Amino acid sequence: MKLTRTTQILLILALLFGLSVFSYETLVAPKREVSGQQQKQLFNFAEEEVKSITIEKDGETLKFAKTQDEIQPWQMKQPEEVPAKEATIAFLLNLLTEGKSDRAITTPIEQLNDYGLNQPTTKIEVTLDNQETHELVLGKLDFSGKLIYAQIDPKQVNTENSEQVEVILLPINFQYAVERELAEWQDLGRDGEDGGDGGDGGDGGDGGDGRDGGDG
After folding, report:
1. Which of 15, 23, 175, 185 is deepest in the core (most CB within 10 A)?
2. Where are the domains of the chain?
3. Through-space distance between the first and last CA atoms of the chain, rounded to whole angstroms
4. pLDDT given for residue 3 in this prediction
5. Does residue 79 have a cis peptide bond before it, meaning omega lies within 30 degrees of 0?
6. For residue 151, is it left (φ>0), alpha (ψ between -120 and 50) or beta?
7. 53, 94 in Cβ contact below 8 A?
8. Which residues on neighbouring strands pair with residue 134, listed in sequence order?
9. DSSP3 helix / strand / coil % (the chain, rounded to 5)
């Protein structure tokens, strides 16, 4: 039995549709699912749980401690004892508590240097109210220049498995959050003292009375 031309076209279209659905279900959908799984939270603590922050970068150490003052919630402890700029600290804390990794890479521990993580120049350590500590270390930028390689709690992870370690990719905002001049961390406006009031000027002395001229 011969099929009409219209029937043949419909069969071909049905076959193509079936192939497209099969390709999507077997290739595209799984990749999207994996990509979604790789977007995971960095840490499980909340911003209000953090009581201190230590940043080590290029041989310099910055230390900050939370205060009980709502107006001045953070204090710089090192290298100077001055009020910390709230907006700068808040930006960093938001990244740490809300940030997610772009993707993760499993690599031999001896290859950490390829990602700038063997001896990282930037370390961020937070201490929580319960004395628990967490650390994030930053390495090199990736080839795009928009992401940066990093490790979460490397001291713990690298000792648990001496052969394979996990390296994550983070947005470059993490680098921007710590690459700041010292003045950007300090709220010096809150540290100044009001100047004293100027003294009142002295009153002028009264002039002497004129004398009458002598009689001729």
Report:
1. 185
2. 47-183
3. 160
4. 56
5. yes
6. beta
7. no
8. 126
9. 35, 30, 35
